[in-house]
Amino acid sequence: MPHPLTRIICQYLDSPVETLANHKPLIDEMCAILCNITGMDLNPTVMSERNTATAKGNAVSPVVAGRCAWEILRSQVFIRGVYAAIRERLDSPDRDADSTPLNILYAGTGPFGLLIVPLLPLLSAKEVQITLLDIHDRSLTLLNKLIDELDVRDRIAAIHCTDILKWPAPVAHYDLVVSETMTAMLKAEPQVAIFAHLVSALKPSGSLIPEQIQVNASLLAAGTFDEQSAIPLGRMFSLDRQTALAIASGDERCFSAQLVILEHPAHYTDLQFTTEIVVYGDHRLTRGQCSLTMPFTRHKVRLEIGSTLESRYVLNDRPDFEIRYKVTNAVNYDTPADSSDCSMFGIPHAKRLWQKVQLLKLNRLDPGIVQSEQDLDLQCYRALGLQYPDDLAELFSKDSLSDFESWVMTRNQSLTNHSAVS
What we know:
Elements: H1 4-14, H2 24-38, E1 52-54, E2 57-59, H3 62-67, H4 72-90, E3 102-107, E4 128-134, H5 137-150, E5 156-161, E6 174-178, H6 191-198, E7 202-209, E8 212-220, E9 231-239, H7 241-248, E10 256-260, E11 270-280, E12 283-285, E13 296-298, E14 308-314, E15 320-324, H8 350-361, H9 367-372, H10 374-384, H11 392-397, H12 401-411
Parallel strand pairs: 3-4, 3-6, 4-5, 6-7
Antiparallel strand pairs: 1-2, 8-9, 8-11, 10-14, 11-12, 11-13, 14-15
Helix pairs in contact: 1-2, 6-7
């Protein structure tokens, strides 16, 4: 009979991807088994353990590392991705019975070695040899209990308690280098530095896992979370084998990005940063599927169209992004232009009318203004050559000032665009 933990791992591996989100009972059972075997308490009364600072970010404590196992999709997608990478190599037509075992390096195991050790009952010592690294001796003490419980000691090549960034990695030795030492947007933890340090340990045919981590920027309509309607601005940084090699050589150009702000609807005022993870092949984690891919949002940013968002990843003892951008003063959403403003077509109140429509769409226009300015609005409609209420729906559809001006000019060709607003 397989070990109860192995039974759960097999269910993860055999399940259709669309069912993984329903596996909370399995995740809870897995964590209970892991805690029972190792003696780890994931809910201590007193958090006596602390993160350990390294030169390039924090190594989280054994308790924090262990708690990661509770994340439903994060645990399953990483386990499935690692197993897929191993099986792809073991099942290759180029591999024969006399082939040496795959050499795999797992850097930052935590107390459970979750991404590899629970898989080892499904593999033999002739197939894989694993080197395990962690900075916390307590994590490795607990992990050794799991290794013995699963009777997979013969699949362990070495165990080192070490600061990974100081560990002397052998050159071109490993088929896979696995490390999940990150947070969303690659903040605070040393994932980037670890991959830059360990990438030389890969064989030419080897792979980093995760294969790629992307940090992207996009614009969203104010107060919404609809990914489908987001306007992508572009990629700020990508961590993969190529960039890890560049960073290791001292080339940090990949840390910097310049994203041009294209024209967008006026109510797209929220700037959002997302993290996407390709664990291996089709095994991926996207926006909001786990804590590693939770988006960061800056609200009411109002980026200036045509300007550039500049970002730079800073790899120090608290890794993070430095982000600079230019905000627009073209439309003051909170205080619409004064009615005497004639910058649009030389017509008083025209600019204010359009800005009030934008506020209405955001439910931020004072109802008192709506009532008190009805006559002014109607006069402005007539001056612009528009019909009320027939043209109201079309007016509401114009999300940018330039679209509004162009539409008005098609309706009233006698107007000249004197707007000073770009």
